[in-house]
UniProtKB/TrEMBL annotation:
It comes from the Bacteria. GO terms for cellular component: plasma membrane. Keywords: Cell membrane, Membrane, Transmembrane, Transmembrane helix. The chain crosses the membrane at residues 21-41, 286-311, 331-357, 377-400. Residues 290-407 form the ABC3 transporter permease C-terminal domain. This is Putative ABC transport system permease protein. Belongs to the ABC-4 integral membrane protein family. Its main location: membrane.
Amino acid sequence: MFDLDRWQEIFETIRKNKLRTFLTGISVASGIFILVVLLGFGQGMQNGIQKEFEADATNRVWVWTEVTTKEYKGLNPGRPIQLRNEDYDNLTTLYKNELEYKSDLFRVRGTSINYKNESVSYGVHGVSPNYQQIENQKIILGRYINYSDLKSKGKVIVISNKIKQELLPNVENPLSEYLQLSGINFKIVGVYIDEGGEREENRVFIPISTAQSIFNGSNRVANLAFTLQPEENFEKALAVSKQFTEEIKQYLKQVHSVAPDDNAVNAFNVMEEVKRYYTLTSNIALFFWFVGICTIIAGVVGVSNIMLIIVKERTREIGIRKALGAKPWSIIWMIMQESIFVTGVAGFAGLILSMALLEVVGPNIEVDYVLNPSVNFSMAVTMVILLIVAGALAGFIPAWKAANVHPIKALSHE
């Protein structure tokens, strides 16, 4: 039931103590403001990291080789280890049930890409058809390399949308055009975009069999790339991925006579990086929660202290109320109502300011691993409601003390 007299009392008390009420409200508002902003940036970090990993499949395993650093089985260190077609064929056969996508890769060195009188220098990679899924590439025109291209060693090429805009800006249908690689014509069969953005579009792709045949690749392979079958949860997928990574490293070291503790055979497991980054962001989010909650607690303690001061100042008034028959709970509610009002107004003010800041500034932030910091509105409102409850509890203790004061002592209070 709305009590006009009670609210007039509250506003009269606030009017008499403007500065004190303002400073108390600032402490509460700053607490919710800091918490929401920190949580927003925590979410922004998660968004940024998720965006970074969208460039490639998150369960990808990438294999490459270097030079041996240790003597092994009578072989001197300093041997370059070279992956070959049979390594790829044997591994894909051995793990055919575990693999989702697979591709080998051959890098074509020292060649330019020409179209009529235009020439550009981008990476030229020979790959297998599954490389599209491994790199999260999306075909927007035409098709990707297929197994028929591999078998026939077809002179076909897939270009990025970025390269199309640079080399063929006025060509409506690039699928009828040819590019030259070292003077050899390759027909454009597809145009792709990459989820990782333009920086991932600095490459063109041709069948690996064609690349090895035309560009003196023999049966050499630069890298192997795999993704594993999906698992029921992340932890299991991570465990399976780790086991697979270790097994293929051991297999290749054994085949190429590399010492078990030599890093001449390397494998990069993207899932381990995903785990590391998300663990980091989770820890940062917990830290943000801790800082924000501590700030809110400081504000709530400030409210409690102010309520104690108010009770002390109004002790004589409370004594008169009790002498006239006021019930203890009416006095408790009188004090708590002021506490709830100050906490609620300040809390929502901090919420509105923080949400407005994230809404205006968030989309314009250009920082690595931070993307569109934001906070779920319902969660933010829930935090404010919890803050109001905390404010009510902060006012309860002084209110309980006021309700239990003896009328005679209260009336004699100076």
